[in-house]
């Protein structure tokens, strides 16, 4: 991964959402298949088609790099990441998405409610992060169907991330 001039610059939420990087949860990346029944991701056990469509671990890492860079310059959300270690954020986000998309990773970090507790993330901020992810996916030239499959998984977490008074 490249070096950034923004190493201690604040980042955002969805990534922290997915990565649990605000807390010190451990994540392991192994070659073993994901063992789950029907996960909260909506994927069937053993379904790694989304993981493959995203370019496996390397493709996810590249996507998350583009995503993190987009978030780092987005004034709408950057204030949530004043003390985030960007390298760790990128790594944890990539690993969590690897698991969520059926890849051979196991996320053992804090759940999304715990990760975002006290952050008071608004619906507008959540949507801003989603816009950044869409931009990163378009830059990576992912198909619309692949983008929609990933967004559907992440949308299911919205209620765990957005501050309750902001939800309708």
**Number of structural units classed as domains:** 1
User: Could you give a short account of the major beta sheet?
Assistant: 2 strands, antiparallel
Taken as a percent bin, the fraction of beta residues is under 5%
Overall spatial form: globular
Rg from Cα:
15 Å
- What is the assigned CATH homologous superfamily? Globins
Structural class by SSE content: mainly alpha
Assign the CATH architecture: Orthogonal Bundle
> What strand line-up does the widest sheet have?
1-2
DSSP helix fraction: 40-55%
Number of strands: 2
Here the CATH topology equals Globin-like
Q: Helix count? A: 8
Average pLDDT for all residues: 77
Order of helices and strands: HEHHHEHHHH
Short description:
The chain is mainly alpha-helical and 168 residues long. It contains eight helices and two strands; from the N terminus they run H-E-H-H-H-E-H-H-H-H. A two-stranded antiparallel sheet has the order 1-2.
Characterization of the model:
This protein is mainly α and 168 residues long. The chain has one domain: Globin-like (Orthogonal Bundle), CATH 1.10.490.10. Helix content is 49%, strand content 4%. The chain contains eight helices and two strands; from the N terminus they run H-E-H-H-H-E-H-H-H-H. Strands 1-2 form a two-stranded antiparallel ribbon. The radius of gyration is 15 Å and the shape is globular. The N and C termini lie far apart (39 Å). One of its GO terms (molecular function) is metal ion binding. InterPro entries: Globin-like_sf (IPR009050), Globin/Proto (IPR012292), Hemoglobin_trunc (IPR001486). Keywords: Heme, Iron, Metal-binding, Signal, Transport. This is Truncated hemoglobin YjbI.
